[in-house]
Write a structure and sequence with these properties.
elongated, mainly beta, about 40% strand, two-stranded antiparallel ribbon
Length: about 500
């Protein structure tokens, strides 16, 4: 007797006894082909056969205890190896399964042997002679490019006309020269060309050899002082007005001889005590400028609206109170004026302070009060004398930009700012000075020649040309030594 049968008999016994409660858990008969349940009215387990019908006409429905219950066997076999046989609610379906979805294969069917999917490379033909056409299941067609010009910086394309190399400058190494850029030349390879070339004849292209920064200043000549010459692709044009501020409340005008611009306001007076002004930000006329405002803080300004007459009354009480100074409101002098100062050293660039308690003065030098408007000088307040307001202006060649000419050197000139002077000029009229543009080497050749063979002709600093008889040559040498010593 099998163990399963023993268990079933035990369960049936338990169900039939009065002490076993009729609950679903106690009604399991371990038979997969029955639906086990509890009849509550009878307090008894029931085991009707399981319904295995799937409602499909094309299946054989049965229940097998050994294989776990219901079985629904499809009976749609059409004896064709090239179809997928399935059973659906509408009946048997026979789906053709030999199409592999790959365009470059030849799909065929043998009902007995099944499907055949043969690779056909000719279906991948792209009509290009420079490619190899390949059919590769399951990906399909691909065309191998056979073009190679053996130039590393070109991308070779295969076209109907054959191989076409496309140059790609990014495949070339960077140039060590900041003014050169790498380029790819067909049939040659990587090369370089000028970085700063805008292709316009009307600009002067230049490149900073240190930073590589490009500049393209226009070289267009000005033929009309009231027009702005501009370099465009089509060449030099002069269409843009020089004197145009783009503001409607000004009348723009240009002097046709000098090119000087003027932009007078065209705003009309609407208030007799207001001055209409053209606001350059709002680009419109506004009335926010009192006519009688003299711009002096210590005057009381008023305007008579009947006739627009102004009154500007001085008010000394509006001036500051200072122990060391006495102030008065003097409109003709610009407002509050110090009429008396205890501390004044008479030097413009010093700030004179007064201590009213200690009753002593201190003069502080202020360099920012010194300005000769020469960019290459260092302006300092020394306070030594009232000359130049106590300022000293020290020229520094290092403040001047370096010369781009190897034979010129920068010089800070107190009148002309930075200028360039001859590097090889020794200051002597009796020498011919020259500079080698290739290396900047100086040559200073004496131009002293009296045309006499019996004299030694020399150029001597301070003295100029001297002509000494050869018999007195020793005296000549000593004289040169003395002069050179004095120069030091």
């Amino acid at each position: 007797m099998s163990i399963n049968l023993v268990i079933i008999l035990i369960l049936q016994y338990c169900v039939s006894t009065s002490w076993a409660d009729c609950i679903p858990a106690n009604c399991e008969d371990l038979n997969p082909c029955t639906d086990d349940s509890c009849d509550a009215k009878k307090n008894k387990c029931v085991h009707p056969p399981k319904d295995c019908n799937d409602n499909l006409d094309c299946t054989d429905d049965s229940c097998d205890k050994r294989f776990g219950g219901c079985k629904n066997v499809v009976k749609c076999n059409d004896n064709n190896a090239c179809t997928e046989d399935t059973c659906e609610s509408s009946g048997c379906k026979h789906q053709y399964k030999c199409d592999d979805g790959i365009d470059c294969t030849d799909d065929s069917c043998d009902k007995k042997k099944g499907c055949s999917n043969i690779v056909n490379h000719s279906k991948c033909n792209d009509d290009l002679d420079c490619t190899i056409d390949v059919c590769d299941p399951p990906t399909g067609c691909y065309n191998v490019n056979q073009c190679d010009d053996e130039i590393d910086c070109t991308v070779d394309r295969c076209t109907e006309d054959g191989s076409v190399p496309d140059p790609d400058d990014t495949l070339c190494p960077e140039s060590s020269d900041p003014c050169q850029i790498p380029i790819c030349v067909v049939n040659e390879g990587c090369s370089t060309e000028d970085k700063c070339n805008d292709g316009l004849d009307c600009t002067d292209d230049s490149c900073n050899p240190v930073t590589g920064e490009c500049t393209f200043p226009s070289n267009c000549p000005s033929t009309n002082p009231c027009k702005i010459p501009e370099c465009l692709i089509e060449g030099c044009i002069e269409d843009e007005d020089k004197c145009n501020d783009g503001i409607d409340c000004t009348d723009d005008s240009c002097n046709p001889e000098t090119g000087e611009c003027t932009f007078p306001s065209n705003c009309e007076i609407t208030d007799i005590c207001q001055i209409p002004t053209c606001d350059l930000v709002q680009k419109d006329c506004i009335n926010n400028s009192p006519k009688c405002d003299d711009g002096i803080a210590c005057t009381v300004d008023s305007c008579d609206h009947s006739d627009g007459e102004c009154t500007n009354t001085p008010n000394d009480n509006a001036c500051p109170v200072d122990w060391c100074f006495e102030y008065k409101c003097l409109p003709e002098d610009g407002g509050c004026i110090k009429t008396k100062a205890t501390c004044n050293d008479g030097i413009d660039c010093t700030f004179d302070t007064c201590n009213p308690i200690a009753q002593n003065c201190l003069a502080l030098p202020l360099d920012d009060h010194c300005n000769d408007h020469i960019s290459c000088t260092v302006d300092i307040c020394t306070g030594n004398s009232p000359t130049n307001g106590g300022c000293t202006f020290i020229p520094l060649e290092s403040n001047c930009p370096p010369s781009t000419n190897i034979c010129l050197i920068p010089k800070c000139d107190l009148e002309q700012e930075c200028i360039e002077v001859e590097k090889c000029d020794d200051g002597l009229d009796c020498t011919d000075d020259s500079c080698d543009l290739s290396d900047g080497k100086c040559t200073n050749t004496s131009n002293c020649d009296d045309g006499l063979d019996c004299t030694e002709d020399s150029c001597v600093p301070i003295l100029g040309c001297i002509y000494i008889p050869k018999k007195l040559f020793l005296i000549h040498v000593i004289l040169l030594m003395v002069v050179s010593s004095n120069r030091k």
